[in-house]
């Protein structure tokens, strides 16, 4: 077989070019059914492509019945009598990949919007949840070797998948990230305006009279969280309040065991000026912290209000927080599906980020909200929605 020294035509995916080159070689009689077919490693060497591209090209030839795999012997060109035309494979497939631990309200809402829109556009949606960063890479490589034409990726905290996403691109698989992006790799992404979320939630709490706040996070090394922290700090600066790194540092909270979380809370409560508010990077972290506060034996000087940088109940106001951000999560899924569709239809525009604004929710006067209080031990009480009376507040 001649070496693959040519270049793929403009606009043709690498895997499709390799596949066609192999089909042409078979039609010229360069391979016969009684001799092993070219291997994955040989494809990589001859065509200068990635392993992912080679695997996908071979898998498509197997799916089309052009070559067959024989256990213990390898891959061979199919006998002419058994070779078949490609069978109808159903609608084009899109894969959605997200971490197991995100399989809550936020993930469900995003998936709801994505599934409705992909169905309307005529695609089949496959869903995969990943257990770890390493598993995330394995799943993405399996997608590249399978029949999915695109992947919508909700990446892990501290994701190492940038290299695999680049392999997907070279293999002709469209990639769109949601909720967060990979700073080292230009890709399409649909995001929330996370800087504004951090800024607006913090400003609303300042407007309620709070001057002494702490922030707790679940994830620590994703762009969404970093942008929310940047917005929080900017709001403090704009209002002339000090930035206290020990009260907002990107350290994991929800991943700690209960004893570790309570130590973190105790350190916040006992540091410097008494806290009058706790902010949370997301609603699940808020709920975990409330449970931990109730289990602690340390008191809260005065009382303390809670705020979240997203919402726990779709289309409703949570009683746990006096301020929260309602994120357009379903719309994120819909926009991701449309962006995938544009790329699969041949759009060659540069990669772009679609940024969706959030809606700020502030407890109305008279609405009951949760307030954490207790001089001898932590307890909760329902407040009528006004700012708490606590030491360190200004009118």
Structural class: alpha/beta
CATH topology call of the largest domain = Rossmann fold
Q: How many independent structural domains?
A: 3
Largest sheet: 7 strands, mixed
- State the fourth-level CATH superfamily of the largest domain: Response regulator
Shape: elongated
**Which range best describes the helical content: under 10%, 10-25%, 25-40%, 40-55%, 55-70% or over 70%?**
25-40%
Architecture of the largest domain, according to CATH? Answer: 3-Layer(aba) Sandwich
Identify low-pLDDT runs: 1-5, 81-88, 385-395
CATH class of the largest domain: Alpha Beta
Strand content: 15-25%
Strands, total number:
15
The value of Rg in angstroms is 27 Å
What is the H/E string? HHHEEEHEHEHEEHEHHEHEEHEEEE
Question: How far from one another are the termini?
Answer: 82 Å
**Helical element count?**
11
Mean pLDDT: 84
Structure description:
It is a single chain. With 395 residues, the protein is an alpha/beta fold. It folds into 3 domains: 14-77, Arc Repressor Mutant, subunit A (Orthogonal Bundle), CATH 1.10.10.10; 93-191 and 329-357, 3-Layer(aba) Sandwich (Rossmann fold), CATH 3.40.50.2300; 194-327 and 360-383, Rossmann fold (3-Layer(aba) Sandwich), CATH 3.40.50.2300. Helix content is 36%, strand content 20%. It contains 11 helices and 15 strands. It has helices at residues 14-27, 40-47, 51-63, 105-120, 133-145, 162-170, 194-207, 223-238, 258-269, 283-295, 329-344, and strands spanning 67-70, 74-77, 93-99, 124-130, 148-153, 174-178, 188-192, 213-216, 277-280, 300-308, 323-326, 353-356, 359-362, 369-374, 379-383. The strands form 3 sheets. Strands 8, 9, 10, 11, 13, 14 and 15 form a 7-stranded mixed β-sheet that branches. Helix 4 links the parallel strand 3 and strand 4. Helix 1 (14-27) packs across helix 3 and helix 9 (258-269) crosses helix 10 (283-295). Residues 12-80 form the HTH gntR-type domain.
